[in-house]
Amino acid sequence: MIDISGSGQLPLLTQRLSDLRASPVRAMLEASQKPDVISFAGGLPAPETFAKATLPASAEAALQYGPSEGEPRLRALIAEELQAIGLDCDADQVLILSGSQQGIDLSAKLTVDAGTRIAVESPTYLAALQVFRFFGAAFESMPPDLSVNWTRQDHPAMAYIIPTFQNPTGRCWSADEREAFAHNCEASDVILFEDDPYRDLAYEACERRPVASWMKQGSWIYQGSFSKTLSPGLRLGFMVASRDLYPHLLLLKQAADLHSNRLSQYMVIDQLTAPDRAARRDFLVSTYRARRDAFADAMRRHLGNAVEWQVPPGGLFFWLTLPDHVDVDALLAAAIKRKVLFTPGRPFYADEALASPSIRLNFSHASQEAADAGLAILGDLLRA
After folding, report:
1. Span 15-50+278-383: which CATH code?
2. Which CATH number is 57-272's, of 3.30.460.80, 3.40.640.10, 2.130.10.10, 3.30.540.10?
3. Burial of 48: CB neighbours in 10 Å, binned 0-12, 13-18, 19+
4. What residues pair up with 141 in beta bridges, in sequence order?
């Protein structure tokens, strides 16, 4: 236990707080709500893509407490869709989450003690690093080619991956990479934790079959979210796990919040069974593809050769590598003065010594006109 106040006047608090870091994205969220601020910082979906917030007549039952696992109908629908994309699972392996961030928290509670090795991509989702670090994880940064030499005698407890339109880079793993990684986890007894919130936001053809679908033995967790495809305010996601892990995750869920919001679950059931669902998904993809392409065009015009980047085949982000001499913190401070927000790249690295000057830009939220103006400002600052 520690006294983090420095004054000795507050009760002693858990040692875990000593390494708890604020998320730079969440810290900028309030500023991004101001109408004169152009924000590329968060992963905010475009409001015009949100599903209509309507409840079916049967939703009155959702006003009572419900099962910790989630609504049976919703779990069955999710299992059917996952089976269709290659994941061998049943409805009784599905756990409804209060947002996919809860899934990261439950997985950390399941696997991480102080000093537990967790393998992560480099870079990777900064909020996952925040959770794993809170529980005392020791990080193992995997190389870009995903080559690892784990054995049954020497391996991390869990590997956390985002193989489809990765946050922050936008990268999509090939089929060979997915299969090889799954077999490596099987052979070395590493728990595979696959985070897949962006799979429906595909603008180009690429492999999207879950890595977990290649796991015929061993332990695995796969999770997805409705935040990017329906509405983030629903705070609803789902987790599917191998049968050896599921009972433990369910108990951790019960201890955390009893069950996820039932009204949100009924709304999602209504959306998943709507006759116009396919048309709505097509609208979502075409809207974001147009925004991505316009954003890429604006970056070519305003940033030129000042940075390196690739057009992501899906997801919501561009990852920019800056020249070595650029001070990203100074760049952000100057951008904020001109009411432009972005996310620095350093917090996405478990080992910040591996970070080169880089930034993540979200293209989904700002209008085309605002994005053009914001990128023009960033171009001016980089040239200055």
Report:
1. 3.90.1150.10
2. 3.40.640.10
3. exposed
4. 120
Phi, psi for 193 (deg, rounded to 5)? -120, 105
Q: Which residues of 243-261 are buried (b: 16+ CB within 10 A; e: fewer)?
A: eebbeebbebbeebeebbb
Indicate the burial class of 324 (C-beta count within 10 angstroms; 0-12, 13-18, 19 or more): exposed
Domain ranges of the chain: 15-50+278-383, 57-272
CA atoms 304, 308, 311, 316: torsion sign: negative
DSSP-derived pairing of the beta strands 158-161 and 138-141:
unpaired
User: pLDDT tens string for the chain (384 positions)?
Assistant: 555 555 556 566 666 666 666 666 656 666 666 778 999 988 888 888 888 777 777 778 888 899 999 999 999 999 999 999 999 999 999 999 999 999 999 999 999 999 999 999 999 999 999 999 999 999 999 999 999 999 999 999 999 999 999 999 999 999 999 999 999 999 999 999 999 999 999 999 999 999 999 999 999 999 999 999 999 989 999 999 999 999 999 999 999 999 999 999 999 999 999 999 999 999 999 999 999 999 999 999 999 888 999 999 999 999 999 999 999 999 999 999 999 999 999 999 999 989 999 999 999 999 999 999 999 999 999 998
Question: How far is Cα 360 from Cα 341, in angstroms, rounded to an integer?
Answer: 10
- Contacts of 317 by beta carbon, 8 Å cutoff, 6+ apart: 43, 167, 168, 169, 170, 360, 361, 362, 363
